C-alpha cells in the first residue's frame, strides 16, 4: 500500500482538527507529499476517499497551489526568488548559475527524484524577504543575502549530503520532512521539538524599523472607531 495505516491515522487526525472535514484538504495534501514526495493521482484519490470529496474537487486544489508538486521532487527543493527586487539584486543570476550547474530548468530534478543529493530547482515569485534580497529557500527554509557563488556552494553541499544551517528558521530537513511539518505534525517531546523544528525567525534588517521607532518614541496615530455606512438590505 502506498499509504499505510500510520498515514491513514494521521489523515483522520487532521480531519478531527476541523469542524468541516473538507477543511483538512490542504494539510492532507502536504501529508501525501511527505509520503510520496509529490501529489500523485493515487494521492488525490486517497484525499478524496478520506474526505468524502470527488477526485475532481481535490485535483482543483492540488493544481491551484504551487507548493503541491505533481511530479516527484528531489530530496531537496531549492526555490530561488526571481521577483522584481530579488531579480534586480542578483536573483536571476543565481537561478541561471544553479540551472547551469544542475542541468535543469523550472521544477526539474537533478538526480533520481527522492534519492540522496537530488534537487528540484524552481523559480519562486516572492519569498517575502525583500529586506534580505536576494534570497532562496531550501525546503522552505531561508538562505538570505545570497550571491551566485554562495548559492552554488550551498547546492553543492546539498548534493554531498550536507545540510547547511539556514540563515534563520528551523534546522534543515529534507523535502518530505518539511512536508510532514507543513501537514501539522511535530515531535511531541519539547527537547526534540526545539532541536528539530524550533529556530529564530527574525532578522536584524526586518526589525530595524520597529527598533528605530521605539528608540525615538514614534507611535502610530490612534485609529478612530468610525461606523460603517449603512447599505440597503438585499
Automatic annotation (TrEMBL):
Cofactor names from the entry are:
[2Fe-2S] cluster
- Is-annotated flag, keyword Metal-binding? yes
Q: Which terms are listed as keywords in the entry? A: 2Fe-2S, Iron, Iron-sulfur, Metal-binding
Give residues annotated as binding [2Fe-2S] cluster: 81, 86, 126, 130
Q: Which GO terms describe its molecular function?
A: 2 iron, 2 sulfur cluster binding; metal ion binding; NADH dehydrogenase activity
Please report a single Pfam family linked to this protein: 2Fe-2S_thioredx
Please indicate if the UniProt record lists Iron-sulfur as a keyword: yes
State the SUPFAM superfamilies in the record: Thioredoxin-like
Under PANTHER family, the record lists: NADH DEHYDROGENASE [UBIQUINONE] FLAVOPROTEIN 2, MITOCHONDRIAL, NADH DEHYDROGENASE UBIQUINONE FLAVOPROTEIN 2, MITOCHONDRIAL
Question: Member of which family?
Answer: Belongs to the complex I 24 kDa subunit family.
What is the protein's name according to its record? NADH-quinone oxidoreductase subunit E
Q: Which organism is it from?
A: Amycolatopsis bartoniae
Amino acid at each position: 500500500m502506498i499509504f499505510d495505516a500510520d498515514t491513514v491515522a494521521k489523515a483522520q487526525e487532521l480531519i478531527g482538527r476541523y469542524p468541516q472535514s473538507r477543511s483538512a484538504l490542504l494539510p492532507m495534501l502536504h501529508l501525501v507529499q511527505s509520503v510520496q514526495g509529490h501529489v500523485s493521482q493515487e494521492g488525490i484519490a486517497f484525499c478524496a476517499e478520506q474526505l468524502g470529496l470527488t477526485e475532481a474537487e481535490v485535483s482543483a486544489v492540488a493544481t491551484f497551489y504551487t507548493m503541491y508538486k505533481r511530479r516527484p521532487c528531489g530530496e531537496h527543493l531549492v526555490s530561488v526568488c526571481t521577483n522584481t527586487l530579488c531579480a534586480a539584486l542578483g536573483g536571476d543570476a543565481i537561478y541561471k548559475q544553479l540551472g547551469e550547474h544542475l542541468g535543469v530548468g523550472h521544477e526539474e530534478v537533478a538526480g533520481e527524484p527522492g534519492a540522496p543529493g537530488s534537487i528540484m530547482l524552481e523559480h519562486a515569485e516572492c519569498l517575502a524577504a525583500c529586506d534580505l534580497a536576494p534570497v532562496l529557500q531550501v525546503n522552505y527554509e531561508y538562505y538570505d543575502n545570497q550571491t551566485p557563488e554562495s548559492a552554488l556552494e550551498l547546492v553543492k553541499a546539498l548534493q554531498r549530503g550536507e545540510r547547511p544551517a539556514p540563515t534563520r528558521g528551523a534546522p534543515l530537513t529534507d523535502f518530505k520532512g518539511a512536508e510532514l511539518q507543513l501537514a501539522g505534525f511535530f515531535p511531541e517531546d519539547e527537547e526534540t521539538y526545539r532541536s528539530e523544528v524550533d529556530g529564530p525567525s527574525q532578522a536584524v534588517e526586518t526589525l530595524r524599523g520597529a527598533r528605530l521607532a521605539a528608540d525615538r518614541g514614534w507611535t502610530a496615530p490612534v485609529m478612530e472607531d468610525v461606523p460603517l455606512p449603512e447599505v440597503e438590505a438585499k
